[in-house]
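=== RUN LOG ===
request id: a7f3
mode: sequence -> structure
chains: 1
length: 295
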Amino acid sequence: MAGETGYDRVLRFSIPHRNARGRSVRLGPVLDTILTAHDYPPPIRRLLAEALVLTALLGTLLKDEGSQLTMQAQTQSGVVDLLVCDYCDGELRGYVRHDAERLAMLGRNPSLHALFGQGYLAVTFDLAATGQRYQGIVPLEGDSLAEACESYFAQSEQVPTLIRVGIGDGAAGCIAGGILVQHLAEGEAGRERLHVRMDHPEWEHVAVLAGSTRLEELVDPDLSQEALIWRLFHDEPEVRVEPGGVLQRGCRCTIEHYQAVLAKFPEADRVEMRDEQGLIMVDCAFCSKLFQIDI
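=== RESULT ===
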């Protein structure tokens, strides 16, 4: 509907009397821009699409401008040996490194375990206001990256969290959407903090409602995010919604950036990096651009 939240924007919402907050997102053109930077096969496209939705959902939990969320999945011997995405001030980027020959042997819909083997998921919050960094690492287990993120919040932050992600195809390319709902601690003095109560009745109620989300609803272009939240929680006395800013691809690769990075290397090392023309060639893994650096 006109004026409601569609593609490439996050919708924040809260259910005050249930001590719950959430985020929903539907990625369209931004997702297609990131995915088409590389010729990813379908299983890797779906994997990166899910990761980018999760990165947007988690990244918008940050409050301060300049703060960054980085999500990295890695393994020593998996078909996918590195997946990395980050979010900063509404900008998303992501990249997957994989073994194409081994991937082709797995079929059309390989499981998360088939792609990664014994891997791990690391979630890092870099806070601009304090300069602090928080990182949690959990085993890459379950059927999806979303399940691994739920484990991160349960184990590293002890915050009950439910996440659902859907991926589909639209007229203009790949579409992916997701919803995240959390139970927040009250934290008053002398009271038990809710985040250590995984079986709290308020959370169980919200989790049942949010868990009823159908994956096709998350990618339905005719269903605004506000309409989806209304479908899930319309019986609640109060649900507050707040549209977030526009999401965009945010690869930070520039000649100036790479010059600054390379300037930190000793001159002897830079000599070895130069080609016959005296230039250092830098290939950005995120956007697949090649830069010629003269330094």
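=== NOTES ===
Residues 162 and 211 are 7 Å apart (CA to CA).
The chain is about 30% helix and 30% strand.
=== END ===
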